[in-house]
């Protein structure tokens, strides 16, 4: 029988000003159908401090989602180090990495990744169980109320509009009080009124709980609200030559 995954029971509270995310010499290439490598990431160094909020921009296909997936350990890198809250996620065995992600990283996926068989409330509560902890229905309901979905708790994703599904995804990403939030175009399918609401919600949650945030957006209205905006092509050699 396989050994049980190493438990991560100690929450390390980040020191103010500490680096929450550090990438060093990260390279990632996909393999094309004809077998040729397609270089996507070649990042010498990229860092985000604890509690810092950073926007990531870049042309379509330049590697933004790939970068977020690598940081979350959902995609493996070819070489380099990705330190999240002081641990190199690229060096963790898969089961430990899954638990580490659930404990320290919140992820709002571009495609939401909600589980269709479960209600909005259950989707948020399920995210809480991935850390090995007990789901907290009251907190889950409060997070959904915070995103304006108090009246949609028992609806399954197919009964929610695209924008509502996106807001469930935001609530789920905050459920485990992460230290790093990765948000991949979280307002892409939200109407303008809710767009600002989602951004305000993400920002205030990050400020309140000292969560560092890396937010991908194509929206100039969103990015102009942030003091640090990174263009992926400027930090990524692979994107510059592509
Ligand atoms: N699994 C894969 N295998 C091969 N190529 C892939 C794979 N995933 C992504 N790509 C390619 O890698 C490139 C970067 O994709 P990625 O999704 O990271 O871009 P992006 O900057 O997030 O784009 P967008 O702004 O359109 O969402 C694209 O050319 C894409 O087609």
TrEMBL record:
Superkingdom, taxonomy of origin: Bacteria
InterPro entries (UniProt xref): AAA+_ATPase, ABC_transporter-like_ATP-bd, ABC_transporter-like_CS, ABC_transpr_LolD-like, MacB-like_ATP-bd, P-loop_NTPase
PANTHER family for this protein: IMPORT ATP-BINDING PROTEIN, TRANSPORTER, PUTATIVE-RELATED
CDD domains recorded: ABC_MJ0796_LolCDE_FtsE (cd03255)
Ranges of residues in domain ABC transporter: 21-242
A Gene Ontology term for the protein's cellular component: plasma membrane
Protein name: ATPase
UniProt source species: Lacipirellula parvula
Keywords tagged on the record: ATP-binding, Nucleotide-binding, Transport
Coiled-coil region: none
SUPFAM superfamilies given in the database record: P-loop containing nucleoside triphosphate hydrolases (SSF52540)
Pfam families: ABC_tran (PF00005)
UniProt xrefs under Gene3D superfamilies: P-loop containing nucleotide triphosphate hydrolases
Molecular function in Gene Ontology: ATP binding; ATP hydrolysis activity; transmembrane transporter activity
Transmembrane domains' residue ranges: none
């Amino acid at each position: 029988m396989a050994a049980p995954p190493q438990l991560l029971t100690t929450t390390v509270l980040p020191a103010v000003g500490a680096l929450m995310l550090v990438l060093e010499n990260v390279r990632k290439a996909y393999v094309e159908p004809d077998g040729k490598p397609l270089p996507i990431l070649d990042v010498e160094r990229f860092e985000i401090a604890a509690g810092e909020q950073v926007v990531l921009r870049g042309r379509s296909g330049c590697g933004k989602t790939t970068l977020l997936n690598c940081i979350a350990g959902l995609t493996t890198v070819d070489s380099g180090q990705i330190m999240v809250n002081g641990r190199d996620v690229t060096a963790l065995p898969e089961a430990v990495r899954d638990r580490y992600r659930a404990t320290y990283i919140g992820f709002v996926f571009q495609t939401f990744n909600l589980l269709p068989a479960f209600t909005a409330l259950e989707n948020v509560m399920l995210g809480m169980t991935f850390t090995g902890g007990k789901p907290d229905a009251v907190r889950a309901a409060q997070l959904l109320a915070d995103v304006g979905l108090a009246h949609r708790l028992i609806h399954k994703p197919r009964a929610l509009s695209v924008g509502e599904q996106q807001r469930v995804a935001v609530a789920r990403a905050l459920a485990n009080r992460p230290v790093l939030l990765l948000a991949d175009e979280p307002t892409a399918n939200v109407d303008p009124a809710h767009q600002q609401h989602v951004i305000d919600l993400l920002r205030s949650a990050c400020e309140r709980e000292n969560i560092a945030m890396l937010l991908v957006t194509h929206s100039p209205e969103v990015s102009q609200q942030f003091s640090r905006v990174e263009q992926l092509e400027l930090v990524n050699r692979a994107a510059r030559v592509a």
